[in-house]
Amino acid sequence: MNEAATEWKTAAEELAKLHGTVRDGLVKKSEAARWEGANATVTRDFVRSAAKEVDDLQREAKSIHAVLADAHEELTRIQKQAKALADEARQGDPTHNRSRIRGCSCPTAAVARSEWNRPSAMRRAPTSAPRT
Fold first, then answer.
1. Exposed, middle or buried, 116 (CB in 10 Å: 0-12/13-18/19+)?
2. How much is the pTM?
3. Are residues 54 and 16 in contact, defined by beta-carbon separation less than 8 angstroms?
4. What is the Cα–Cα distance from 68 to 62, expressed in whole angstroms?
5. Which of 31, 71, 95, 132 has most Cβ atoms within 10 angstroms of its Cβ?
6. C-alpha 126: how far from its chain's center?
7. Left if phi > 0, otherwise alpha if psi is -120 to 50, otherwise beta: which for 129?
8. Contact assessment for residue 104 and residue 98, using Cβ atoms and an 8 Å cutoff
9. Do 123 and 115 touch, CB atoms closer than 8 A?
10. Can you tell me the distance from the alpha carbon of 60 to that of 8, in angstroms, rounded to the nearest whole number?
11. What is the pLDDT of residues 81-114, one digit of tens each?
């Protein structure tokens, strides 16, 4: 994802350069030209429209880069958190704080937390129905 974000950043930068060239070159020359008639109007409108399209593309590329960069940052943070939790689980410590898992409100986790917080004499024995 980081590679995609970098590529979109590069695309946005290149489009910004192109927009500057279009604005400072084509649009200025088109406006300064001494054209007359219907062709002059159509050509000027076309050049302005093309310049606006390049500007829109540059803004869109910049926006896509921002979204991808934010997503990459968030996924990297979540991956680090998942690795830390996996390391804690491998250590076999059943009393580690599961509340750090954002949004973990599943009943199984809540029961597990409450069971491990009870003294061992008060823990419920596992129940399993006999298989038939």
1. middle
2. 0.58
3. no
4. 10
5. 71
6. 43
7. beta
8. yes
9. yes
10. 10
11. 999 998 888 887 555 555 555 555 555 555 555 5
